């Protein structure tokens, strides 16, 4: 698709994968998100987690894309913090806190 930058320069953009022009010209994804087939979201295999009070989704807010099978702060599900039960030494092993 032919998009025009703020400086007035036109260039051919793949709106299916460009995070600054996702799905259409001038539609940027939030910092935590990537552009997949014209839709802002997490990379394949990751989950979008929004901490308590975060605004998330379209505007990103405090949202983070994470691997819930390895992230000790979002282990198996968003917000499941292994450090609560196991302290700083807690780890996430394939979605299970240890």
What does this structure look like?
This protein is mostly beta strands. It has one helix at 82-86, and strands at 2-4, 10-12, 34-36, 39-41, 47-49, 64-66, 92-93, 96-97. The protein has a two-stranded antiparallel ribbon with strand order 1-2. A two-stranded antiparallel ribbon has the order 3-4. β7 (92-93) and β8 form a beta hairpin. The longest helix is centred in the C-terminal third of the chain and has 5 residues, at 82-86. The radius of gyration is 17 Å and the shape is elongated. The model is unreliable at 53-60 (pLDDT under 50).
List the helices and strands and how they pair.
Elements (H helix, E strand, L loop, with lengths): L1 E3 L5 E3 L21 E3 L2 E3 L5 E3 L14 E3 L15 H5 L5 E2 L2 E2 L1
Antiparallel strand pairs: 1-2, 3-4, 5-6, 7-8
């Amino acid at each position: 698709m032919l998009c025009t930058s703020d400086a007035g320069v036109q260039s051919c953009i793949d709106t299916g994968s460009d995070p600054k022009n996702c799905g259409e010209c001038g539609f940027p994804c939030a910092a935590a998100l990537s552009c997949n087939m014209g839709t802002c979201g997490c990379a394949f295999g990751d989950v979008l987690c929004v901490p308590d009070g975060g605004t998330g989704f379209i505007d990103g807010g405090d949202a983070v894309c994470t691997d819930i099978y390895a992230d000790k702060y979002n282990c198996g599900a968003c917000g499941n913090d292994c450090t609560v039960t196991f302290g700083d030494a807690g780890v996430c092993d394939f979605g299970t806190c240890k």
